């Protein structure tokens, strides 16, 4: 331990005495060199981290129009008109770097008509992890909001949840299943996020996607 104390004392003498003035250009050069080296290491580590851990970056979120078009044509049967409308809506939105409002899709149909499947195809064309992406959020009326007497609590929780997820990633996707069973008050609580707003309480929702399944 004694040698270490002498080293500390020596450094103190160098920087707190007249010797420091003579060595200042050298010490500054060393400090700058160390900072540059450290920055390079951090950037390299960050790039490695982004490659293996899903982040809100183009490496993980990038629209593949060809994939969506091919999937809709080959996997969704008997829905040619819907396929064209969906492809046009999603493509136009994703290629717009400054949309005026979020993309809102409302898919109607009987059970088994492919509403949930279409949502999956859209997610697969945007997120590298598809429906398993941490930026894709699915809500089920009967599962997440089962008790009408707790509607006020659900409204507050849903607003906080949506806001928090968009703060984390502006390219978030929200899928609401069984909309026909959702309490009207709950629907009203998120309407503010779907309209033309530059920002709401400092948060922009304009690059998010909301899909409602009925």
Short structural summary:
The protein has helices spanning 2-15, 19-52, 65-75, 80-94, 115-126, 141-144, 151-168, 184-190; strands spanning 103-107, 136-140, 173-177, 209-213. With 214 residues, it is of the alpha/beta class.
Describe what you observe in this structure.
The chain is of the alpha/beta class and about 210 residues long. The chain has 8 helices and 4 strands. A 4-stranded parallel beta sheet has the order 1-4-3-2. Helix 8 links the parallel strand 3 and strand 4 (about 210-214). The longest helix is centred in the N-terminal third of the chain and has 34 residues, at about 20-50. The protein is globular and about 45 Å long. The model is unreliable at about 1-25 (pLDDT under 50).
**General shape:** globular
Mean of all residue-level pLDDT scores: 82
Largest sheet: 4 strands, parallel
Radius of gyration: 26 Å
Low-confidence stretches: 1-25
Number of strands: 4
Please report the number of helical segments: 8
Structural class: alpha/beta
Arrangement of strands in the largest sheet: 1-4-3-2
Distance between the termini: 72 Å
Give the helix level as a range of percent. 40-55%
> Which percent range describes the beta-strand content?
5-15%
SSE ordering: HHHHEHEHHEHE
Protein name: Torsin
Organism: Ilyodon furcidens (goldbreast splitfin)
Signal peptide: 1-22
InterPro entries: P-loop_NTPase, Torsin
Record keyword descriptors for this entry.
single chain; 214 residues; alpha/beta; four-stranded parallel β-sheet; 8 helices; 4 strands
């Amino acid at each position: 331990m004694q040698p270490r104390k002498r080293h500390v004392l020596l450094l103190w003498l160098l920087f707190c005495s007249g010797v420091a003035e003579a060595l200042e250009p050298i010490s500054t050069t060393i400090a700058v060199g160390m900072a540059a080296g450290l920055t390079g290491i951090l950037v390299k580590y960050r790039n490695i981290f982004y490659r293996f851990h899903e982040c809100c970056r183009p490496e993980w979120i990038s629209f593949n129009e060809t994939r969506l078009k091919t999937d809709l044509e080959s996997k969704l049967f008997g829905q040619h008109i819907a396929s064209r409308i969906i492809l046009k809506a999603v493509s136009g939105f994703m290629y717009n770097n400054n949309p005026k409002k979020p993309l809102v899709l409302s898919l109607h149909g009987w059970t088994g008509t492919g509403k949930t499947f279409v949502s999956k195809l859209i997610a697969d064309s945007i997120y590298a992890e598809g429906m398993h992406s941490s930026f894709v959020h699915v809500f089920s009326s009967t599962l997440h909001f089962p008790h009408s007497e707790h509607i006020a609590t659900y409204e507050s929780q849903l607003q906080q949840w949506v806001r928090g997820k968009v703060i984390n990633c502006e390219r978030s996707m929200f899928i609401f299943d069984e909309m026909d069973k959702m309490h009207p008050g709950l629907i009203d609580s998120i309407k503010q996020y779907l309209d033309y707003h530059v920002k709401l309480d400092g948060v922009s929702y304009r690059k998010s996607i909301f899909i409602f399944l009925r």
